[in-house]
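Researcher: Sequence of NDR1/HIN1-like protein 13 follows. Predict its structure.
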Amino acid sequence: MTDRVYPSAKPNGTATAPNATATAANPAVATVKNQMYNPNRIPYRPTPTAYHRHNHRRCNCRRCFCMCCFWFILSILIILLLAAIAGAIFYVLYHPQRPAFSISSLKISQFNLTTTADDTTHLTAKLNLTLSTKNPNKKLIYNYNPISITALSNQVVLANGSFPGFTSSPNNITIIHSTLSMVSQVLDADSVSSLRSDLKRKAGLPVTLLIDTMVVVKMDKLKSKRVGIRVTCEGIHGPTPKGKAPAVASTSNAKCKVDLRVKILKWTF
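Model: Prediction complete. Tokens:
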């Protein structure tokens, strides 16, 4: 029998490597692998987004706001420190003191409670007041505006009066004479009851005086703004007059308190 020659299963030449076979079967794997292990590849750097830019701008605004607050508070503290130093220097140089007020005499020349046919009560009163004010300072001058005076008894207004403005020199005493009056003032039931009860007291009718004015303080060439002053005088008791002779009130225990009324914006302290 004649022998037949069969071709070989593998062609002549270089044998195919197993990796080459896998690469040919799946080219995507080879591409990914080459990119992953490529030493010359530039690293990925994401560009900043709008969110990061917004956060950066917010941080800058917050930093600017904090700096503005810091400088504002620091400026206020410096101003307060300078004001405290100026006040201390002024106090050492001038040693300012408040003016002193005292009641010299109070006479009740008229006091009538009249009830009419329509069951309303009217008050008619007249008081003669003499008080003194002293400037205890050695270098300060007080310029007073016109003074308003109100006499009360347990919050019930008895009479009103005034006195023109004047100047009080250093270590000077000024005597003030004023007539307070009330003509046929209608009172409510509570005020009438309070007055009738006070008139029965043995010590007499309790009287409180409220003195309101504005004052300007001068020192050498300097001059302050107008400052409000309220003087409250208590401890006065006086009987009502009998006949035409005025009744003299007791002022031996009277004490006057001076309060400064400083306005800040619309508030009074």
